[in-house]
């Protein structure tokens, strides 16, 4: 599959971020813990040049423990502050404010020497669509102040959100970059739902996912769908899942579209178990 997806509002969002970057002290970048590299927007490095940085590995509860540990080490080695978070349940959220203050301590000290006191740290929250930004912000703020949805593209404009006297957040729409140089990146983003299902071939994406799971997480497949013995080719696995889960068309043949949607839902919701799709090399 060839991925290229850059709606007009993405260009607008990027321009807005460029205009507002001078107003902030720290860039809080949300990544999906299952695909931290694929869910990083390379534009952010350029946009956030000379700003303090905090990487949030969101949905860490859906990724495997080894993957979380390796990615944490990877970003720390790059000199970034890193936190694992499950915004949905609020796990790890209590560490965010302290980490922001720690990351910005040089700035706070500079302000203190100039006689500036009690000026809140201003943070920009950025990330690609459907990485859980709005859920993270609401969890951090302790109130519903950002619109949420399990589809990409819910946040449309910028908004300042006062967390407390110490921290203010600038919420921005999720932005993707114009072109995926590496098609694996597009594949990963389609798997986690950052590209709308309506514009991809879900069955084809599912076959790629099953191929990966067969190699790296065969026991997850066996446990979820009751397979025994050696796993077959991805298309045969999908056929079997269709049979087991009664994804049938009229006449009794397997409904591959329905079976594929079921597999993707099992993966995205974590029902299949903790899965990381990429690891640091």
Can you walk through the features of this model?
The chain has helices at residues 8-20, 42-47, 65-77, 96-103, 105-113, 133-141, 183-192, 202-216, 218-225, 234-244, 256-269; strands spanning 26-32, 52-58, 81-84, 121-126, 159-162, 167-171. It is of the alpha/beta class. Helix 8 (202-216) crosses helix 10 (234-244), helix 8 (202-216) packs across helix 11 (256-269) and helix 10 (234-244) crosses helix 11 (256-269). The chain has a six-stranded mixed β-sheet with strand order 3-2-1-4-6-5, sandwiched between helices. Residues 149-156 have low confidence and may be disordered. It contains eleven helices and six strands.
Query: H/E order of the elements?
Result: HEHEHEHHEHEEHHHHH
Q: Specify the number of helices.
A: 11
Backbone shape: elongated
Oligomeric grouping of the chains:
single chain
Class computed from helices, strands and strand pairing: alpha/beta
Q: In percent, how much strand structure appears in the residues?
A: 5-15%
Strand order of the largest sheet: 3-2-1-4-6-5
Poorly predicted runs of 5 or more residues:
149-156
pLDDT averaged residue by residue: 87
**End-to-end CA span:** 24 Å
> Measured on Cα atoms, how large is the radius of gyration?
20 Å
Largest sheet: 6 strands, mixed
The helical percent reads: 40-55%
**Number of DSSP strand runs:** 6
């Amino acid at each position: 599959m060839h991925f290229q997806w850059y709606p007009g509002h993405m260009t607008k969002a990027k321009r807005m971020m460029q205009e507002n970057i001078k107003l902030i002290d720290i860039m809080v970048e949300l990544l999906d813990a299952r695909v931290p590299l694929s869910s990083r927007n390379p534009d952010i490095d350029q946009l956030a040049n000379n700003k303090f940085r905090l990487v949030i590995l969101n949905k860490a509860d859906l990724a495997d423990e080894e993957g979380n540990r390796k990615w944490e080490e990877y970003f720390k080695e790059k000199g970034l502050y890193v936190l694992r978070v499950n915004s949905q349940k609020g796990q790890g959220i209590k560490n965010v404010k302290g980490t922001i203050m720690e990351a910005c301590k040089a700035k706070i000290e500079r302000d203190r020497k100039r006689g500036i006191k009690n000026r809140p740290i201003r943070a920009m929250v950025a990330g690609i669509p459907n990485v859980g930004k709005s859920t993270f912000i609401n969890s951090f703020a302790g109130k519903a102040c950002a619109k949420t949805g399990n589809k990409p593209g819910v946040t449309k404009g910028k908004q300042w959100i006062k967390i407390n006297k110490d921290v203010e957040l600038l919420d921005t729409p999720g932005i993707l970059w114009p072109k995926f140089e590496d098609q694996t990146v597009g594949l990963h983003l389609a798997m986690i739902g950052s590209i709308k299902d309506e514009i991809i071939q879900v069955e084809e994406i599912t076959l790629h996912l099953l191929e990966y799971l067969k190699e790296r997480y065969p026991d997850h497949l066996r446990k979820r769908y009751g397979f025994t013995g050696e796993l077959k080719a991805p298309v045969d696995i999908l056929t079997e899942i269709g049979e087991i889960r009664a994804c049938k068309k009229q006449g009794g043949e397997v409904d591959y579209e329905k079976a594929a949607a079921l597999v993707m839902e099992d993966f995205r919701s974590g029902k299949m178990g903790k899965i990381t799709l990429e690891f640091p090399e």
